[in-house]
Design brief:
The protein has about 130 residues and is mainly beta. A five-stranded antiparallel β-sheet has the order 5-3-2-6-7, covered by helices on one side. It is built from one helix and seven strands; from the N terminus they run ββββββαβ.
């Protein structure tokens, strides 16, 4: 279930994007848990438990990308292997315009589309260890 997220409105933001990833995953790149973009400028939160769907109805216009857990559009929760604590980086980006990026896109496409459009950003880091 996707976590609830809240942020403060950023001056000049026309849309927001969210990336959640785990750099401690046993892979050469961070493991992508969630990608959401074109969150309307008037929104300052995402509700808990958003559906795994390419396009969200709330907030209207928000689009989700492909996670690396099950390859679906939407959130994939922590599933680290037994071992050390994993760090989950939740990043929110304020953008000066909505992105022309189709649903189901992967992280690299989202980052490339955001290049030159980020007017502010913030990050929170949570941890989880497999029982």
């Amino acid at each position: 279930m996707s976590p609830p997220i809240r942020w403060s409105a950023a001056p000049g933001a026309a849309a927001y994007a969210v990336i959640v990833e785990d750099p401690d995953a046993p892979s050469p790149r961070p493991f992508v848990h969630w990608l959401v973009w074109n969150i309307p400028a008037g929104a300052t939160a995402l509700a808990e438990g958003l559906p795994q769907a390419p396009k969200l109805t709330s907030p209207t216009g928000a689009i989700q990308g492909r996670n690396e857990g099950d390859g679906a559009s939407g959130y994939w929760g922590p599933h680290p292997p037994p071992g050390p604590v994993h760090h989950y980086h939740l990043q929110v980006f304020a953008l000066d315009a909505p992105l022309a990026l189709g649903a189901g896109a992967e992280r690299d496409a989202l980052v490339a589309a955001m290049r030159g459009h980020v007017v502010a950003d913030g990050e929170a880091v949570g941890t989880f260890k497999a029982p």
